[in-house]
Amino acid sequence: MAGLHVEHVDAVKRRVSVVQNAVTVGSFVEVGTPKTHEARTVPFPDFLDTELAAQAAGKPRTGILFGDGTTYMPLPLTGSGWFSRAVDRCIAADTQRAEIAAERGETVPAIFPRVTPHDLRHTAASLAISAGANVKAVQRMLGHASAAMTLDTYADLFDDDLDDVAAALSRARSSAIVATALPAESPEE
């Protein structure tokens, strides 16, 4: 995400083109190709329209999407960076709400889990698969070199597809039957 520019967001089609990355190496940000050296397109849901528009507001098309538009944001440090601190704030707020609910005898709400940016990548893949995306679409979204890599990583999430195949075969058969069996003719006819 750090390497995204305003021009990489297609708000009409709701697609983000991942064509470069920005990686912190020592104290410098190195801009280059994505990890697999393959550009990819990632869809985004409509509920992100407002947030992405706010990030792009006032920046030129060639401006960096996140941050001030001119300086690449550093990648979050594991355990102590901006992402981890944001997760800590979510956990603290949820913990406080849970304690208050417990004191009142109410149902204790779930507490936000500790997540990493990579966990969010897996979550996006899982949500796409559960929404019915085919393996090639998930492969393209994740930038995997092959569909086999995607299947090797997420094979267990495609298990429900077996039930869908059986149901689809039943529907196809039902729609293909144009006549019901006619009663057998009696010999005297």
Taking Cα atoms only, what radius of gyration do you get, to the nearest Å?
25 Å
What is the average of the pLDDT values?
84
* Classification by helices and strands: alpha+beta
Strand sequence of the main sheet, in spatial order? 1-2-5
Strand composition percent: 5-15%
Give the strand tally: 5
Written as H for each helix and E for each strand, in order along the chain, the element string is: EEEEEHHHHHH
Output the number of helix runs: 6
Largest sheet: 3 strands, antiparallel
Low-confidence stretches: none
Give the CA-based shape.
Answer: extended
Quaternary structure state of the chains depicted = single chain
Helix content: 40-55%
Supply database-style keywords.
two-stranded antiparallel ribbon; 189 residues; 3-stranded antiparallel β-sheet; 6 helices; alpha+beta
Question: What's the gist of this structure?
Answer:
The protein is of the alpha+beta class and 189 residues long. It is built from 6 helices and 5 strands.
What features would you describe in this structure?
The chain is of the alpha+beta class. 41% of the residues lie in helices and 11% in strands. It is built from six helices and five strands. The strands form two sheets. It has a three-stranded antiparallel β-sheet. A two-stranded antiparallel ribbon has the order 3-4. α4 crosses α5. The longest helix is centred in the middle third of the chain and has 23 residues.
Present the secondary structure layout:
Layout: E1 9-10, E2 15-18, E3 21-25, E4 28-32, E5 40-43, H1 49-56, H2 82-104, H3 117-130, H4 135-142, H5 147-154, H6 161-176
Helix pairs in contact: 3-4, 4-5
